[in-house]
Every structure is written in C-alpha cells, then in structure tokens.
Amino acid sequence: KIISYQSGIAFPKLPVRPVPMETMLEPTSRNPDDNVIVPHCHSFPYLYTKIRDCKTSNKDFALYASRILRILAEEAVGMVPSSPCSIQTPTNTTYAGMRALDDENSLCVVSILRAGDALMEAVRSVVPQAAVAKILIQRDESSEEKLPKLFYSKIPSDVNSRFCILCDPMLATGGSALCALSILIQEGQVPPDNIIFVCVVAAPEGIRAVHTRHPEVKIVTGAIDTGLNEDKYIVPGLGDFGDRWYNTT
Ligand code: PRP
Ligand code: URA
C-alpha cells in the first residue's frame, strides 16, 4: 500500500514507497487532495531506525538525521515550481530540461526555532541564495494541550512574493506549525499554496490540524507515525528532536 499523495495540478508526480501498516494514515486523511507527500528513499528505513533508536548517541543522531534532512530538503526544493528549458550537452546535443530557482528572490526558507534550524540549514545548503526567516516558537510543556508560545519572528518584507519552505523536524499536535503559518499567511500575506511545510516525522493529528485550517499547504514528511501519547509526543517517534540534535539531554 502507498500513502504518498500530492495535488497533481502544479507539481509532477513523485515516486511512492510502501510503509509499514502501523504508519498508515487514518482513512479520513487518505485523500489524494490532502497535499501530503512522503518521498521515496531506499535509505530511509535504515536512517529512521538509527534516529528512532533510544540507544543512538546524540552525536550519531545528528549524523543520521542530517542525511535525512538533506534528502527532505532536496525533495522540498524539487517541488518549487520550475520551467522548461533547452540546453546543449558536451556531446553537442540539445537536451530538454527544467530550470528552477534561478531567480534570487524566489525562495524563502523559514525556520521554526529551535529545531527548525537544522532543516533550514539543509535547505540553505541546497539553495544558498534563499532568504531566511526565523520564528521562535516553544511548546508550553506545562500546559495540557502543549500550546505553542510565540517569542519572536523576523520575516522578509517581500515574503509574499516568494515561495516558502517552512521547516520544523516534528509535526505533533500541529500547534507550532499553525502558529508559524498564521505569521506567514496573515502577517506576511503569503498565499497558502505557495508554502511547503517540511518535517522529519508527522503525527496524523498534526497533519489534520494543519490541513483543516490550510488545506492548500503542502506537507513533505519522511514518516507519518501512529499518533501522540498522553504528553503529546509522537509515537513511535524519536523523542525530542531539538534536544537530541543540540545535545541538550
Ligand atoms: C518541538 C518541535 C516542534 C514542536 C512540535 O519544538 O520542533 O516545533 O515541538 O510540536 P507541536 O506540533 O505539538 O507544536 P519544541 O517546542 O520542543 O522546541 P525546540 O525546537 O527547542 O526543541
Ligand atoms: N517535539 C518533539 O521534538 N518531539 C515530539 O514527539 C513532539 C514534539
């Protein structure tokens, strides 16, 4: 069975990969218009096993997670609209190719701090000319709903004319993602269908929360897990991405 979906209008079809039963999306979310994309990568089962394993050291977590981040960054950047072009190869042959992101002003990569910076840097390593926006949001772990708290945001004044890749490795309740999206969409006036949200692991609850409010936002995730536990942590999940990445536990 497959669970890779996309709008099919503005973006080319991506290959799909089988996933274990326990990571299947629930039927209500299994709609081809859901704008959820799970990229295919043969290394993912191995890499995800490494980052999910509680015995993996923080040093190794960063190593294996960075490989995943780079793959997801490439996928997200590859979804930004591109245009056909014609080039000459060294064999003096014409090749009908695609040109993407030649315009320096076309992309903004948005980091939900703190963990989003890891993914943001992966996107920047692919597209160094991208503008960077930062939004500091922290879950309030003392609240029952783990409500997001917004501390700071800095977005470029021309963000509404850019395609946005919003980065946060974990989509749990969706509270942090929705908070960042409201800044981009309400304050920044970014059209929702110009936004790709990228994460390493998503819970079905988070996907539903984002798409209930903003169905046009595309979600690229390497894994869709079973759900949330009583602390609103993703299960099976990988624990706290930020703490493991920054070696703070
Ligand atoms: C984590 C994660 C997301 C958020 C996801 O950040 O990086 O931002 O939680 O949870 P949600 O979907 O329920 O909002 P956290 O607030 O722990 O901060 P950190 O980046 O400093 O680890
Ligand atoms: N933040 C994380 O880092 N992990 C979760 O599972 C939920 C929120």
Instruction: Kindly report how far apart the N and C termini lie.
Output: 37 Å
CATH fold category name: Rossmann fold
Rg, nearest Å: 18 Å
Mean pLDDT: 88
Number of helices: 6
Number of domains: 1
Task: Fill in the keyword field for this structure.
25% strand, globular, Rossmann fold, GTP-binding, eight-stranded mixed sheet, EC 2.4.2.9, binds uracil, alpha/beta, 249 residues, two-stranded antiparallel sheet
Textual characterization of the structure:
The chain has a single domain (21-80, 109-245), classed as Rossmann fold. It contains 6 helices and 12 strands. The strands form 3 sheets. Strands 1, 4, 5, 6, 7, 8, 9 and 10 form an 8-stranded mixed β-sheet that branches. Strands 2-3 form a two-stranded antiparallel sheet. 28% of the residues lie in helices and 25% in strands. Helix 1 packs across helix 2 (58-79). It has 249 residues and is of the alpha/beta class. A hairpin with an 8-residue loop joins strand 5 (131-139) and strand 6 (148-154). The structure holds 1-O-pyrophosphono-5-O-phosphono-alpha-D-ribofuranose (PRP) and uracil (URA). Belongs to the UPRTase family. InterPro entries: PRTase-like, PRTase_dom. Residues 47-248 form the Phosphoribosyltransferase domain.
